[in-house]
């Protein structure tokens, strides 16, 4: 699958390599799946291959787990390669549990690009499936190699089929969205249809897993099915919210979100700074130095948290953040560029400056978030 959702920094991820400029990571959760696959498939190997020792069966099952992860990686690199060919930057590829994700920095801007990126992953899985079934016809089915090839064929077939289910956030859902987008001319309409289809798919996955699995509770197909369904249900909702934000983004401009700010000297107390802000109807405070140059921005949450009796004795420096370059935004920013700037340096408040560098006002991140989540008026 592929996504443009921003994700946490790769603290707990193991970097295993690069694909062109794109780093590839494995999440620690993958080890759990490798262990589960090894334990559940060793008996399958032992039953299929005559005279195989227990240790060889476990070794082969573990090798299958590793090769399967590489197949999932190949699926993701399919998405990544097509994204790069279309000029879309890919932040990284992460392999976790049973799946993986290619994090694309910006969503495709054309339905055709969305279609190509989405299809590339499942296409790789289908090619691997076909190659493995082909190889199975020429190897001894009762040999270690025969069992391995058959396991890889079926597992890749399942990856391709599952990912092609026509609901967001799955690849098939993105294909569906691209088609509706192309026909309707509206990305948001495509996403709405894809997201609702994703919820229908989630219910069908949960329902069929429970019906097929009646009676055998434990770590069973039923539980895995319900977990997958929950993942799909919430993923569909997230896709919809992301699309609404993307739809509203072009109309969001910094100019309209500006809060009036007030310049205050650094040696002022919190009590006096707040008094001046209230009397001047300012909704943000910028700390300036002796030459009136902005040096820091006051954090609204922090200054509000100072107890009343402490305010006359608390200095502004304890409730403000020094102005690093990322906290200063030019007033002309809008749409995606604005969101990118805020994402690059996360903060509660930013100083907005005119073209000549003079302060124009304050941007509060809460106002930006509200503008992006407000129901569309048109
Ligand atoms: Zn995929």
List the uncertain runs: none
Bound molecules: zinc ion
Give a quick account of the main beta sheet: strands, pairing sense, barrel closure.
5 strands, mixed
Q: Strand order within the widest sheet?
A: 1-5-4-3-2
Order of helices and strands: EEEHHEEHHHHHHEHEEHEEHEEH
Mind telling me the C-alpha Rg?
27 Å
Mean pLDDT: 86
**What class would the helix/strand composition place it in?**
alpha/beta
As a percent range, the share of helical residues equals 40-55%
Quantity of strands, as a count = 12
What secondary-structure arrangement, pairings included, does this model have?
Elements: E1 2-3, E2 14-19, E3 22-26, H1 29-48, H2 54-85, E4 90-96, E5 99-104, H3 111-136, H4 144-163, H5 171-184, H6 187-212, H7 221-248, H8 254-257, E6 262-265, H9 270-279, E7 285-288, E8 294-298, H10 300-304, E9 320-322, E10 328-330, H11 335-344, E11 349-353, E12 359-364, H12 365-373
Parallel strand pairs: 1-5, 3-4, 6-7, 10-11
Antiparallel strand pairs: 2-3, 4-5, 7-8, 8-9, 11-12
This protein binds zinc ion.
Residues 1, 75, 79, 121, 163, 171 line the site of zinc ion.
């Amino acid at each position: 699958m592929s996504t443009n959702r921003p994700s946490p920094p790769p603290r707990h991820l193991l970097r295993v390599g690069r694909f062109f400029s794109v780093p590839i990571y494995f999440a620690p959760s993958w080890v759990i799946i490798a262990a589960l696959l090894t334990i559940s498939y060793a008996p399958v190997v032992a039953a299929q291959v005559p005279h195989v020792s227990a240790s060889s069966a476990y070794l082969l099952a573990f090798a299958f787990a590793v090769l399967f992860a590489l197949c999932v990686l190949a699926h993701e690199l399919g998405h990544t390669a097509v994204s790069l060919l279309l000029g879309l930057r890919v932040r990284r590829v992460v392999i976790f549990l049973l799946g993986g994700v290619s994090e694309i920095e910006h969503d495709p801007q054309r339905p055709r690009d969305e279609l190509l990126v989405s299809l590339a992953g499942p296409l790789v899985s289908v090619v691997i499936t076909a190659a493995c079934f082909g190889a199975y016809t020429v190897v001894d089915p009762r040999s270690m190699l025969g069992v391995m090839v058959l396991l890889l064929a079926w597992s890749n077939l399942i990856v391709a089929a599952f990912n092609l289910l026509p609901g967001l956030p799955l690849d098939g859902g993105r294909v569906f969205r691209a088609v509706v987008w192309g026909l309707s001319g509206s990305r948001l309409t495509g996403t709405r249809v894809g997201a609702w289809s994703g919820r229908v798919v989630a219910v069908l996955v949960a329902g069929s897993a429970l019906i097929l699995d009646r009676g055998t509770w434990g770590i069973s197909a039923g539980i895995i099915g319900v977990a997958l369904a929950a993942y799909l249900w919430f993923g569909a909702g997230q896709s919809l919210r992301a699309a609404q934000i993307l739809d509203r983004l072009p109309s969001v401009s910094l100019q309209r979100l500006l809060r009036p700010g007030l310049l205050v000297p650094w040696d002022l107390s919190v009590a006096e700074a707040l008094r001046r802000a209230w009397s001047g109807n300012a909704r943000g405070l910028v700390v300036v130095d002796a030459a009136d140059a902005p040096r820091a921005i006051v954090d609204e949450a922090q200054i509000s948290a100072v107890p009343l009796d402490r305010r006359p004795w608390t200095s502004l420096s304890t409730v403000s953040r020094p102005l690093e370059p990322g906290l200063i935004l030019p007033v002309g920013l809008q749409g995606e560029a604005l969101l990118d700037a805020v994402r690059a340096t996360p903060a509660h408040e930013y100083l907005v400056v005119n073209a000549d560098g003079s302060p124009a006002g304050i941007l509060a991140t809460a106002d930006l978030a509200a503008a992006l989540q407000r129901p569309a008026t048109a």
